[in-house]
Design goal:
Elements: H1 14-23, E1 28-29, E2 31-36, E3 42-47, E4 51-55, E5 58-64, H2 72-80, E6 82-87, H3 93-98, H4 109-112, E7 117-118, E8 127-128, E9 133-145, E10 150-162, E11 182-184, E12 188-190
Antiparallel strand pairs: 1-11, 2-3, 2-6, 4-5, 5-10, 6-9, 7-8, 9-10, 11-12
Length: 204
Amino acid sequence: MHYIPNEHFNDFEHVYKINLINSCSGYKSANLIGTKSASSQENVAVFSSVMHLGSNPPLLGFICRPTTVMRHTYENIKDTKYYTVNSIHSTILEDAHHTSAKYEREISEFEKTSLLPEYKDGFHAPFVKGCPLQLSMEYVNEYLITENDVILVIGMIKGIYIENGLLNNDGFVDLAAGNTAAINGLDGYNVPKKNIRFKYQRPK
């Protein structure tokens, strides 16, 4: 097995280093976060850091990089309090990844890709049309992680839209059946084909 000690990390070329460190945490969720500014400018961006924080209340978190540069998603959420989380599926991988490009505020990523916004039940922020799992979210809180100045943004799930056939009788959402992707590192997308499930475990 190849061993890389911490003291060697800074010897690597920049892109090599960030690929290495981003890859070794394992597969991550692949989501598009949709927002709309107070002046109605739409924005959509790929995030690999959306995480479950608890079911009661239903909370999700995601990591926002340092705000030393423009962060349109974060700014729109702070201004309006609302956003959407949309699972990336196999047929939109290239367009979803392109939303990581840094456009000026007045340019919507929806305009630069084939991704389409859609609005549901009067919710402020746009969903991404065709995504098999779509969540309407409301900003709750945030925490600055001082070690590297990233922000953990916490939101409450206000509503869940699930493609027909993905919701099991026990409440399990079968993302594999929806060809939903996961992210490996910064730019590696994987589409799981099946699930292996086990019963709730109790002490023997």
